[in-house]
Amino acid sequence: MDLENNLFMLPGPVKMHPRVLAAMAKPAMAHRSAEFKAVNKEIKELLYYLFQTKQHVTILSGSGTAGLDAAIGNLLRKGDKVLNITNGKFSERFNLVCKIFADPTEYAVEWGKAPDLDEVARLLEENEFKAVTLCHNETSTALTNPAKEIGALCKKHGALLIMDGITSVGSIEVRPDEWGVDICLMGSQKCIAAPAGLAGLCVSERAYGMLHNEASYYLDLKAHIDKLEEKNDTPWTPAVPLYLAFLEALRMLKEEGLENRIARCHRLAEATRAAEAAMGLRLFPDPKYASDTVTGAWYPEGVGDDIRGLLRDEYGLFIAGAQAHVKGKMFRIGHMGIAQFTELAATFAALEAGLYKKGYKDFELGAGVAEVVKRM
Amino acid sequence: MDLENNLFMLPGPVKMHPRVLAAMAKPAMAHRSAEFKAVNKEIKELLYYLFQTKQHVTILSGSGTAGLDAAIGNLLRKGDKVLNITNGKFSERFNLVCKIFADPTEYAVEWGKAPDLDEVARLLEENEFKAVTLCHNETSTALTNPAKEIGALCKKHGALLIMDGITSVGSIEVRPDEWGVDICLMGSQKCIAAPAGLAGLCVSERAYGMLHNEASYYLDLKAHIDKLEEKNDTPWTPAVPLYLAFLEALRMLKEEGLENRIARCHRLAEATRAAEAAMGLRLFPDPKYASDTVTGAWYPEGVGDDIRGLLRDEYGLFIAGAQAHVKGKMFRIGHMGIAQFTELAATFAALEAGLYKKGYKDFELGAGVAEVVKRM
C-alpha cells in the first residue's frame, strides 16, 4: 500500500491536484494581513460563482458537519418545527443536529429510494414546518435527491429549505437561487478537490434576515457572512493553509468551468454505471436517482468488504465500503472533483481483476473497462 | 515584501518548520483508515505529554475559539454562574462566549495588570460560582496571569477552572493536573508551531463527568474525547492535512523536550526584554507578569503603527501591533514555538534601524542586539 501514489477513488476526501498541495504548504501567513484579505476576496468571488448565487456566501473553518451545525443552530430555535427528509446517513445527521436546536419531524425513506414528492407535499400541507432539511446528494447511498422539486414544494408552503450540498455543489448542478434553497452548504474535500476542514455556505436573503447568534460563538454564521462580504475577513482565526488550498482548488474549477466539470462528472458516472452493468453488478440506489459524483453497487454474491483490502494492497486502488446496515453489502466509487477518465479505466481494470481473484467471474475480463473507454 | 522568506515574529501564527509544511502537503488520506488512526494515536500520546496530564485530551477541527466555545458550551448551562477574569482581548472573549451559554460575572482588570488575588478570593467566597475562566497568557497585552495561584483558589472554593492556554501550552509551564485546571485549551498555530485550525484540549476527570451534548453537534467535546481515547478516531470529518502537520510539530516538540522549549522561550523573552530596555523602550504589561512567549512594549513618542510597514517592506520583519484601545500605542514581538536566537538578533537589528529611520534615536545603534547576543 502506498499512501502517496495511488488511485484514490473515494467519495471524499478526493485526490488533490499538486497545485492545491503546493498552495497549502506555503509558510505561515498572518490572517489579518492585506495579503490574506486578498485571498478571502478571491474566495468570496469564486464562491458566488460556485453556488451560482447573487445572495450571501461564507466559509467556516470546520468540516461539513460544522456547516450543518451552523445552518440549523443559527437559523432555528427550540420550538421551531422542521421536517427532516432522510434516506441515508447524512440526511439522518441533519435529524440529529435538529434534535439539539429545534423540534424535528423525520420523514424516513428507505435507503437508496427517493422521497415520495406527494408525501412531502402532504406533510407540508398538514403541518406548519418552518423549515425542511434535505441532503441533495446522499453520499452514503450514492443517490441524488430531487432538490429542485422539493425546493418548489417548500416555496409553495413558505418553508425554508436547508440543503446539504456537500457532495453535489461543484460537480452536480445546484441552483440555490432558482430552486429556493435558503441555506446550501458544501465541503472542501469533495467536488472542488481541496483538503478537508472547510465548509462553504450560501444563504438566501430571507434566511440571512432570520439568522441569530444565540446558539454558538465559533459558528456564528452571520458574523462569518458579514466579515467576508464587507471586509474580506473572518471573525476568528481561520485555518489559513486550508484557505490557500481552497482558493487554488476554486481557481482550478473556474479554469475548467463549472458546467464543464458537471458535464465531466456526469460522463464519468455514466461510464461507471455502464461498466458495472457490463460486469453484472447491480446499482444500490434507484437508477433513476443514481448520483453523478459517487456510484454505489451491491457486491456480487460471495464478495464482501475484504476485496477493498486486496484492491488497495495489490493495485493501490482506494474505493469505499458502506455504512450502517448496508456495511459489507455494497461498495462505492467516487468520481467527483478532478477525477479523470484514465483513472476510472484504471479503477475498473483493478476492480475486474480483483473480482476474479475473489471468485466472481460472471463477466468477461475487460468488459467493464471497455464501457469506460467507449465514453472517453 | 516577501510572503515566503521573511522574519515572522508574530505572537501567532508563528513560523512553521519545513518538516511541518511537508507533512501537511501529503496527498489525500482517508480519515477512517488504519493509517489515520495511527496518526490519531500518536497525536493523543503527544497531547498527554504536551499537557503533562493523566486525565483526558482531545482535538477539535477548529481554531482556538472553537475550543473556547466547546469548553463553555459543553460544560456549563444557562443559569450556571461563572466568573470571567478579564484583562485583555482574549479573556474578554471568554465573557462573550459565556454570555451565550451561561450566566457570567466579569471581574475586569486593567489591560496589562494582573488580577488581584485577594479580590478573586473575595469574589469566590461571596458568590457561588460554578466555574472561573482565565486566559493564562493574554496575548493581547503580553501578560501571563498567575494561573497556579488562581487554580488553588478555585480548588479551595470548589469552582471549575476553564483556562485558555492558547499561547502558553508548549512554551510556558502549564500543569493542568497539579494546578487544578479542569479544561485547558491550546491552539495549533502558537507554541507548537503548527498551522492554524486545530484546538487541543485537556479535560479533568471532574469536568469530563459533567460534560453534556446539548449545546452543539459539531463541537461535542465528550464525543471527541471518547472517539480519540477509545478508538483513535474522530466523530466527524477532521481537517486531515492539519492533523498531519500537527503531529509533525508535536514530534518536534518531543524531540526538543518540553522543558527545553520552555527554557528556550524564557531565555528568548529575557533577551527581548533586556534588548528593549537597552533601547529605552518600556514594557506594556506589569514587568512582574511579562510573558515568555510574547513581549509587548509601548512605542516611543513619535513612533506609531506605520513602523510595522517599514519593517516589513524594508527588512522582511513581521511583528504585531495591538488591538482595541491600545491599537497604535504598543507593539508585540512573538518568541514562542521554534523561534531562534539568531532570528531574535535579526529582529532587533531591523527594529533598531527602523526606529532610527522613524526618528527615535534615544539609544546607541547595536545596543538592543548586543543584549540578545549576550544571552545566546
At the fold tier of CATH, the topology name of the largest domain in chain A is Aspartate Aminotransferase, domain 2
Mean pLDDT reading of chain A:
97
**Oligomerization category of the chains in this entry:** homodimer
Q: What is the gyration radius of chain A calculated from CA atoms?
A: 21 Å
Sum this structure up briefly.
2 copies of one chain form a homodimer. Chain A has about 375 residues and is α/β, with parallel strands linked by helices.
Description:
2 copies of one chain form a homodimer. Chain A contains 14 helices and 13 strands. In chain A, β8, α7 (176-179) and β9 (183-187) form a beta-alpha-beta unit. The first copy, chain A, folds into 2 domains: 7-13 and 258-374, Aspartate Aminotransferase, domain 1 (Alpha-Beta Complex), CATH 3.90.1150.10; 18-256, Type I PLP-dependent aspartate aminotransferase-like (Major domain) (Aspartate Aminotransferase, domain 2, 3-Layer(aba) Sandwich), CATH 3.40.640. Chain A is globular. In chain A, the strands form 4 sheets. Chain A has a 7-stranded mixed beta sheet, with helices on both faces. In chain A, 43% of the residues lie in helices and 15% in strands. Chain A is an alpha/beta fold and 376 residues long. The mean pLDDT of chain A is 97. In chain A, α11 (258-278) runs antiparallel to α14 (367-374). Chains A and B meet through α1, α3, α4 and α10 of A and α1, α3, α4 and α10 of B.
